[in-house]
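<tokenise_the_fold>
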Amino acid sequence: MRQKSALAQVAACLLTLLPVALVTASDASAQAVTHVGSQRFSVTISGHTLKIPYDANQSITSAHSSVVRLVVLVHGGNRHCETALNNMQSAASTAGVNNTTSLLVGPQFLVEDDISANSLASDMLFWDSDGWKQGDQSLSTSAHPRPANVSTFAVMDSMLLKIASLCPNLKTIVIGGHSSGGQFTTRYAAGNRVEQVLAQQYGIKMSYVVANPSSYMYLNSERLVTGTTNTWAIPANPPCSDYNTYKYGMSGRNSYMTAVPGSQLISQFSSRKITDLLGEDDIDPADSDLDTRCPAEMEGAYRLIRGLNFRNYLIHYYGPSILGVHSTMTVPGVAHDSNGMFTSSCGVYALFGFGSCSTTVSVQDAPRTPGDALQHAQLTCAPNPARNQATISFAVPNGQGPATVSVFDVRGRLVRGFTTELSSGKGSLVWDGRSNSGRDLSSGVYFVKLDHPGGTVKTAVVLLR
């Protein structure tokens, strides 16, 4: 039976009120939303009740005995919570999920321009356009005063605790987000304390899905050494002095994140089930929404590289065992697109546990039955991750003529090349984890590309030493 007596005490602890911060201007770069979530969630801070909007398939303030899975998807920088809900519903439909057994919630973290443009009530919370992504306190301004402040992360804590108290059969909670929502999710996964409470009080398991964020929080002051693919060191002359300041590093963490000692944060981050989803085509260093501040640029030139570098960093920092709980999947054919990410086979699997997803991601084949002719090229590596060698297998429709298999590091540099002749349309070869010069390559993520007479196909392989 659920223990509800501890709910108020835990929520009060997690929603500790800090002094009200007064600012004089809103973020002029934020474009106001045209849709405000249709429902409201309330948090009480030092006697003051304040609200955020949300969209959901069912109310989160009503009891639901049939709900066994909760999926919360955080919007991107445009704060479109209705898009988050639509993405969840599309993924749920693919998974064949019963609408009554899953609670799908898209919270909305507003900025001041949203309050003004939509003439919202004085009890509606709002944040800085960067602050909501990293768990900062809400704001109060002369134009829109508020009696209390609260972190977006603390609002999420309160929401999860409330839902858990109303859904007696809830077993699984998944928190996800794309782009800015991915930034929210990866830092919330590291810093929250509510996961332990939900596990101990209710027996609920949590997981996190982080899709295409612009940056990650590194756990120490090491960064990738320039000119290498997997060598980490403290920069002797970093291009910016604040490169290790939160949200990019551990220094100067906000009040929510410092409530957990650094050693505990590092420990709990290593045990939390996190899936990083990376669009293979999210490779534009000039994307107008990409974080191009110096600390972010030190993580890589574009989102795909930043995600792959962070995976290598986690292996370096924690050791290869981290792959047991913290996985990275690349999604082919998808750039910076939330719907494409969450409705992909990996997205559906991460959100709803339906189907499968592996670190080997190849071009998707059209549905076909045994005996049908091959419609699209196939490329796989096994085993994956590979310790010393991997078998690269390939098949192409009507394949004849020369083909080239190339292995690239995460910086796009060719490290190994093979040539083969296609006669039957399929083949395989063994890569021993070495470069063209015979040098053993370091642990990390590598891309394998097959160039054949009909086009190109690629996949990713993880090399562990």
